[in-house]
Design brief:
Number of helices of chain A: 11
Bound molecules: 3-isopropylmalic acid
Distance between the termini of chain A: 23 Å
Strand order of the largest sheet of chain A: 2-1-3-12-11-4-5-10-8-9
Largest sheet of chain A: 10 strands, mixed
Strand content of chain A: 15-25%
Oligomer: homodimer
Structural class of chain A: alpha/beta
């Protein structure tokens, strides 16, 4: 009973296409000969498409993407300062639009310091945590506005919107995640300043916590959390936080774990109403695009998250093992994007051949 | 022509009184025998005062404090989770109220990695930057609200308010600061998401930059900035940013520079309409209060900022030199709060005695 899954590919801009090529190779390798196959559709979206057609994401694009089982995205964004992109805001119009339209209320960002990867931290214990970042609310809703723009009397407001509905569902996801891991959950917010949203987050965590007596719950202000990220990152298991704090913390998490070249993420709609979207945390890095300099590992680890999400836990584990083996074998000599992808593919296929005997 | 300056002391809670005692000793030592004297008034404010009287900061307190030339604050905040403080929010009602009422629109937070201090970073260059954090706007204005609180239909909003007036004055301060330093200014914001406030900040920086052709200006998203804080903090000279991003970045800055036990700050009203307020970045740390375990260095370096602000640059430099000497002499053996204060006092007074021969 073969299963065919529909995968939307959005390679995007800059290094996006290069890393997606390797990620797809890995996906194909790990599913080859199994009872699951991916039917892929390419979507040409991003700065390049905008410059060609003036479109960022049309209703037709969105409808077509929605019909898939999952999405793999490389990176979007043109060359910084490109005057032709001045009013485009590809990030808002494409990336954030997808996250909001497809109700990706969980933005899942795991951090591991893999053995062999040089972390900028002088010392760190066993670091393995996951940030559950809310994806559809907070200051990301775009509910700001400005008046008297360009005058000395300009006022520009941003509104962070937080709802019981939105906070509770992501908090519940985080508790479930903690229950399946080391049973520790840290809420990160700024409750002493953002008292309204802070109190909604804190009371929601308190309430849901009573259903999970086995989970140890604590709280950190976002500023204090950044301190622990560099002094004691091993203390964290699951962090649940709002959209903006999650954005900031996960870049920092990527940095301490040896670079966002390794940081994967999933934009997840746990209800399954819409397809979830998997992407490396890094950007499009137009300065090194097309030069085979990008590390495709983050995109490949995003494939592991995608496989997990689709219930293919064995294949996800094989991708992760291959990545860990590849990272452990690194000796600092430079490799091309393709070489890294090939190495991971062969780490996947070699043991599989052995097993088949 | 002796000059008498009026100093308001707010030792506050937890370790606040201990570190303020040492800071005052240093202030007295560095001004002893000079033509400037400080007349000090103690204000008993903070969680302890609230528990005793129910007051956080009365109009009379505020009026009395306003009549001073400067304020030195230790730390405020009771024991976390103390049920009697549940609805007090000392941070908002005292610290933030002072910053707003006294129009402290510049929150100045320098970061140096001093020789001899163990940084959590495996390697770092010559780190010496200053964050100019806006202090009277942004998400700190308290303009949020919530409806249907405690129901499944709760909505909690926070409003970040940004004005041309408020942004321009802090941006101008930052450019002046950069002009007196290494002539590099980095705006940190999240312009790709917070498009209204982001565009006000970016356009203000662009406009003021044209008056400072000698200053190199760049821009980083706040998430990317955290990466550089751990991978290349030496790249920064002056960072200008909003209230919330500044809060987060300066705790991280404290951590990479070897702990917020060394991080000083000034809440400055550059116009001189109101007294400026100097305080260590760290909190009240009730868990170690009264045990002589707190490092008073951040409070002492805050005295240096205070002296600078009052035009006493020589004395400020002597405090900093004494701190640098004390830090360089540290061998990791534990010292009491008083011992550290005494050592810095003697580093100040010894060369002064020599000079007098
Ligand atoms: C590109 C940007 C809009 C995005 C965000 O802020 O979420 C990115 O930083 C991320 O973390 O995925
Ligand atoms: C105590 C708190 C309100 C304060 C802030 O957020 O500004 C503190 O974190 C700081 O940085 O001085």
């Amino acid at each position: 009973m073969a299963r065919t899954l529909k995968l939307a590919l959005i390679p995007g801009d800059g290094i996006g296409p290069e890393v997606v090529t390797e990620a797809v190779k890995v996906l194909d390798a790990v599913t080859a000969g199994s009872d699951v196959a991916f039917e892929k559709t390419h979507f040409s979206l991003g700065a390049a498409r905008f410059l060609e057609t003036g479109d960022v994401l049309t209703d037709d694009d969105l409808a077509a993407i929605s019909g898939h089982d999952a999405i793999l995205l490389g990176a979007v964004g043109g060359v910084p300062g490109d005057p032709r992109l001045k009013n485009a805001n590809i990030e808002r119009g494409l990336l954030l639009k997808l996250r909001f339209a497809l109700d990706h209320y969980v933005n899942l960002r795991p951090t591991t310091i893999y053995p062999g990867v040089p972390s900028p931290l002088a010392s760190h214990g066993d670091v393995d945590f996951v940030v559950v970042r809310e994806g559809t609310e907070g200051p990301y809703v775009g509910n700001g506005g400005a008046i008297r723009v360009g005058t000395p009397h300009e006022i520009a407001n941003e509104v962070s919107v937080n709802t019981a509905y939105g906070v509770e569902r992501v908090v519940r996801y985080a508790f479930e995640k903690a229950a399946s891991r080391r049973k520790k959950l840290t809420l990160v917010h700024k409750t002493n300043v953002l008292v309204f949203s802070g109190s909604l987050w804190q009371s929601t965590v308190n309430r849901v916590a009573s259903e999970y007596p086995e989970i140890a719950v604590d709280y950190l202000h976002v500023d204090a959390a950044t301190i622990f990220f560099v002094t004691d990152p091993a203390r964290f298991d699951v962090i649940v936080t709002d959209n903006l704090f999650g954005d900031i913390l996960t870049d920092l998490a990527g940095a301490i774990s040896g670079g966002i070249g390794l940081a994967a993420s999933g934009n997840i709609n746990p209800d399954g109403t819409y397809p979830s979207m998997f992407e490396p945390v890094h950007g499009s890095a137009p300065d090194i695009a097309g030069q085979q300099k990008a590390d495709p590992t983050a995109a490949i680890l995003s494939v592991a998250l995608l496989l997990d999400h689709l219930g293919l836990a064995d294949q996800a584990a094989r991708v992760r093992e291959a990545v860990v083996a590849d990272i452990a074998a690194r000796d600092g000599s430079p490799r091309t994007t393709t070489q890294i992808g090939d190495a991971i593919v062969s780490a996947i296929t070699t043991p599989a051949l052995e097993n088949s005997h």
